[in-house]
Design a protein that fits this description.
The chain is mainly α. It is about 90% helix and about 0% strand. The chain contains one helix and no strands. About 0% of the residues are buried.
């Protein structure tokens, strides 16, 4: 459950950092 959430949040944070 926690691993799944991390896998989902990690790409979003990475894309957000790249976008900004």
């Amino acid at each position: 459950m926690l691993k799944d959430l991390s896998l989902y949040l990690f790409p979003i944070l990475f894309l957000k950092k790249n976008f900004l």
